[in-house]
Amino acid sequence: MVLLFIMGIVPALIIENVVVRSYESRAVSQRTVMVKNQCDILADQLVKRGYMNNPTDEVINAECDMLTNIYNGRILVINQDDRVIKDTYNLDLGKTSLSQEVIDCFSGKETSLYDDEHQYIEMTVAIRNTESRAREIIGVLLISVSTVEINNSKEILETRGTLTLGIAIVLILILGLILSRVLVQPFQKITSAIEGITDGYQDEDISVPDYVETELITDAFNRMLTRVKTVDDTRDEFVSNVSHELKTPLASMKVLADSLNMNPDAPLEQYKEFMKDISDEIDRENQIISDLLSLVRMDKNAADLNIEEISINEELEQILRRLEPIASKANVKLYLDSFRPVTAEVDETKLTLALTNVIENAIKYNKPEGGWVRISLNADRKYFYVSIADSGIGIPEDDVDSIFERFYRVDKSHSRDIGGTGLGLAITKSAIAMHRGAIRVNSKLGEGTTFSIRIPLMHVV
Amino acid sequence: MKKKIILTTVFLMAFMSACSFYEPLEPENVFSLYYLNEDQNRLETVPYTPAADETVPVLDELIANQGRSSEDGKLYSLLPKEVKITGSILDGTTLILDFSPQYKEMPIGREALVRGGIVREFLQVDGVDRVMFTVDGEPLTDSAGDEIGAMTTESFVENSAETINTYQSAAMTLYFTDPSGKTLIPETRKVYYISSEPLERAVVDELFRGPRMTGSSPVFGSEYTVLSVVTQDDTCYVNLNSSGNGITAAPNVDEKVQIYALVNSLTETCGVEQVQITLDGESNRMFRKEVSLSAPFTKNEELTE
């Protein structure tokens, strides 16, 4: 607002001043030139008509009076004795001139000056004897011209300028106020819309299509809002899933305990069997809780990573050694293809957890009659790649996109038999994301699944 | 308490009056010595208090000072080295200064400045009203051979341009007389006068300057001088001084012609209805012999040709 004001008014002020100044100097110089011309002509005529010796010449006197009237000035003709022989004001006739300009003119220096304090132009023109060869100075024309008139015009100009400026200032002020209102209004709309959402009484997207800029802002805001809503929804779903998963073992335990309580004559074998089931359910509950905890830890930022340089080949061998018992129990053969030695900067614990979960899944979801799991390790300059292929039951196409979600189960009916908490792949995905890596899945129902993992060799913060 | 205030007031008043008493008094006879500036194209003045206070010794002191530069050495003396003042005579109130023959060799501009400076300087001395120059015993003449004669401050003009905006012009109808002094002859002219003085004053002054047309004669000589011209409502009061040297420039001019030249000029040019003439501020006097000044005059067309 203030900026607008300054931008509008300062140039106007400058222009006004410049115009008035230039008018004055131009008018004065124009006047000077005109008078000077006339006086040069007059000086010639004075000599030709012998006025210096006969100051009663009617023609010259008439001409002097005319010039005096036209230019609002005064002409003094001074003869060679420095005596005034003609004064158009008739005030100083016969006097001897002591003016500096006249004395200067007698020594050949003509003057022309503008005194803006007393508002006059004064000039001297030497009258030279054109008849003689020496062209000696035989007199001086002293002309003074009032510039009050020029000054009056200048003042009028100035007054008009100031008036116009005043009007302009008022207009700019009003216009500026209105304009700033109008300009800022869409942004105010956005602000109130956002406040509406914050306060909770507005739920839909905001839309302020007044300017391209506001549209871009609202679009960006809407995208953010959608994302926030998705996150919110996911969290709600997660909470309900967690509650459900935690309740399931508890419900089983309750059923087992109640049936024992209601049947006091139950044989010892039944007691033992039920107590074992309850113990299993507690283990399961425990497993779910520790998985959840590790998942939550994964969700925290990458600063929690404990980065060190390790051999991925050794790491994989160790994992396979640990999983060997489960594999042989399920009649699954494990193969490891290491194409080259790979060392990388990773968090050992988290990476091990991630890989273990994928390989364990590959074993668990193999075909009931048994099968194989083939793990390969490769690397280029930037990344190392681990692919885990199995001959398992495969994943239906519709479910492929959801398998990394928490508590997501492809086959809900079999899940209890196979065990697990439904959090394994979610943990894997988080761990790999923390390493700035990526995981892809390719699957064909009934033929098998291949997980491809890519992780950078160097850890980048 | 009251006493205290009174005492304080008295003290204060005494103190204040004391202050005014001890203010440095302006020395009565401060002169200006005239010099030329560095470019020798302008007069400059330096304040000076002469040692003597009688007319002649002061004149001698000033004459002796000619040809010297100013004390600080920045300003030049008026007279060049070769020109000397060879003698001086005080004839009544006219001072006659005699210069050496080299005076005539000065260039025109320098000569004018010298003349102006010396005249102004010597006119400051009490008892000197006019200054006349002679060169080698002969009166100073101009290039045409005419005598320049006695000079006063009025003989010189300086910075005529600076005051241009203080003048304004008016068309005046002035009444003069024929050589016989019996009738009035009107003359119209454009006159420039200083804006700060009233038009009536300018009219009276212009009337006293005399006619320009051939065949007209002036109505007033130097027997009268104008003391004041004041206008109130539609009456113009003209106060004349008749105690001059009594020389009648136009003894044959009729008294009525003199009165009505003044009255008609003023009523015609300035639009006043009547003119009251006073002599030395008194209206119960007779103008010359016949005309009483007791009542104001109105315009009289009968005397006009």
Protein described:
- The complex is a heterodimer of chains A (461) and B (305).
- Chain A is α+β, with helices and mostly antiparallel strands.
- Chain A has three domains: 2-153, PAS domain (Beta-Lactamase, 2-Layer Sandwich), CATH 3.30.450; 204-299, Helix Hairpins (Orthogonal Bundle), CATH 1.10.287.130; 304-456, Heat Shock Protein 90 (2-Layer Sandwich).
- Chain A has ten helices and 13 strands.
- Chain A has helices spanning 2-48, 58-71, 100-106, 148-199, 212-262, 268-299, 312-329, 348-364, 415-418, 424-434; strands spanning 73-79, 84-87, 96-97, 112-115, 120-128, 137-146, 307-311, 332-338, 343-347, 371-379, 383-390, 438-444, 448-456.
- In chain A, strands 2-1-6-5-4 form a five-stranded antiparallel sheet, with helices on both faces. A five-stranded mixed sheet of chain A has the order 8-10-11-13-12, covered by helices on one side.
- In chain A, a hairpin with a 3-residue loop joins strand 12 (438-444) and strand 13 (448-456).
- The two termini of chain A are 45 Å apart.
- In chain A, 25% of the residues are buried.
- Chain B has 305 residues and is α+β, with helices and mostly antiparallel strands.
- Chain B has helices at 2-22, 55-65, 108-123, 199-209, 255-270, and strands spanning 31-36, 43-48, 85-91, 94-99, 130-135, 138-139, 156-157, 167-177, 184-194, 225-232, 235-241, 274-279, 286-287, 291-292, 297-298.
- A four-stranded mixed sheet of chain B has the order 3-4-5-6. In chain B, strands 10-11-12-15 form a four-stranded mixed sheet, covered by helices on one side. In chain B, strands 1-2 form a two-stranded antiparallel ribbon.
- In chain B, a hairpin with a 2-residue loop joins strand 3 (85-91) and strand 4.
- In chain B, helix 4 (199-209) runs antiparallel to helix 5.
- The radius of gyration of chain B is 26 Å and the shape is elongated.
- Classes of the chains: A alpha+beta (461), B alpha+beta (305).
- Chains A and B meet through strand 1, strand 3, helix 3 and strand 6 of A and helix 3, strand 7 and strand 9 of B.
